[in-house]
Amino acid sequence: MASLFRGFFARLFGNAAAPAEEDPVEYEGYRIRPTPFPRLGQYQTAGVIEKEVGGEVKEHRFVRAETHSSREEAVAYSIVKAKQIIDEQGDRIFG
Fold first, then answer.
1. Which of 31, 62, 67, 77 has its CA 20 to 30 A from that of 38?
2. Is residue 74 domain-resident?
3. Number of domains observed in the structure of the chain
């Protein structure tokens, strides 16, 4: 029973170790921070898109269904996905 709860909390909260920070990527006035995380032996596509709007830093977090076998692949794809989101939605992502 205890292992059932441990597994549940591990899936719910992820790994206790903080993921490595990636350098932000500048794109079209936005800052992209890839934040892939380990999940079921793979790395999940995820990131943060930031932009200063009216003196305030706005932030949009995203997680996508795609998984990757390595962290490096997940970082690269998270950047590609963030650029796509920016191109398609622009500042609407903050609304």
1. 31
2. yes
3. 1
